[in-house]
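The pair is quoted verbatim below.
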Amino acid sequence: MTEFFDTYQSHIIFGSVVIVSVLILLISTNVIIKWLLRKEAKLTDVPVRSLKILKRTLNTLWIVLGFIALSFIFVDKEKSSTLKAYFQLATHLGIVAVATIVSATLVNLWFKRKIEEKIAYQYDPTSYKFLRYVAVSMIWFVGILFGLLAFPSLKGVAQTALGGAGVLAIIAGVASQEALANLVGGVFIISFKPFKIGDVVKVSDTMVGTVTDITLRHTVIRNFENKMIVIPNAVINKEKLINYDLGELKCCEHIEVGISYDSNIDDAKRILREECENHPLIYDNRSELDKKNGLPMVRTALTKINDSSLTIRAWAWSSSFSDSFSMKCDVFESTFKRYKESNIELAYPTRTIYMVNEEEVEETENK
C-alpha cells in the first residue's frame, strides 16, 4: 500500500486538488446564486431566470473542466495535448457563455429601468422597449459568433461576421423572407410611429384593443376581453388600422336604432337625443356659434328607410373611445325603456301575405 502511494503520489495529490477545487467552485456558485435569489423580495430587478441559467452554466463548466483535468491522470503524455485542446475549448465556451448571459442581463436591466422612468414621467417607452429586444438579440448573436471561433471549421464564418460587413449577409442568408419583413416592419413602426405602446387601435372588427408590446417579430394587442392578439409586424404594416389615441382623443359615436313604420319619427328622434345628452359621458362638441344659434348638443336624423324599418341615428361625442363604447351601451338600454313607455315600436322583420280565394277567382273569370 505504501509503495502504491509512493508511486502515484503526484497523481493522487493532483486528483484531490482538482476534486476539492471543483467542489469549492460548485458550493461558492450555489451560495452566491441563492443569496441573490433571496434578495428578490427586496430587489424587484433581480432577474431570477437569468440567475438560474447562469448557475446551471457555471456548474456545468466546473464539472466539465474538472472531468477533463482528472483525465490527465489516466492518459499518456502523447495524448495530453488533445486533452489540453478540449480543456481550452471548454474554457473558451464557458467564458463566452457567462459573459453573454451577464451582458444580456445587465443591458436588459438598464433598458427596464429606463422604461420604468419613461412610464413614471408619462413619456412614450415604445422606442426603449423595441431597442431592448434589438440590443439583447445582438448580444446573443455576437456571443454565438465568439463561441464559433473556438471551432476551426467555423472560425472563418465567425471572423467574417464579426468583421462587420458579413453580419447583414449572414442574417439575410439564414433568416427567411418573412422574418426579415417582420424585422423591417418593426423598425418602420418605431421610426414612423403610426401607433405606440398604450394606444387603442382597431385593425379589424375582431382585432380591437390596447398595444402592449412591439418586438422584432410581432406586435401584441390586448383586446377588451383581456385576450392577447399577436400580429406579425409585416402584416400590421400592410393593414389600414384606426388609432383612437392618435391626434385628438374625442370620438364621435354613431348610435342607431331601428323603429317600425307606424312609430312617430319626431318622438323617436327626440327621445334618442335626450338620452344621449343626459348621459354623464357626453362631450359637447359644438362651437360657440352653434351654441349661439341654439343647435342641439346631439344631432339626430332619419338616415335610412329599410324594407321593414326606419333607422334613426344620433351623432354622440365623447372624450375618448372607451367612453364612447360605455355611453353607447347605456344609451341603448335607456332608449329602449323610453321607447317602450312612449309606445314607439322597435323594428323587427315583417312579411305581408295576401290570400287569394280560388272560387272567387273562377267566378270572376266566368263572368
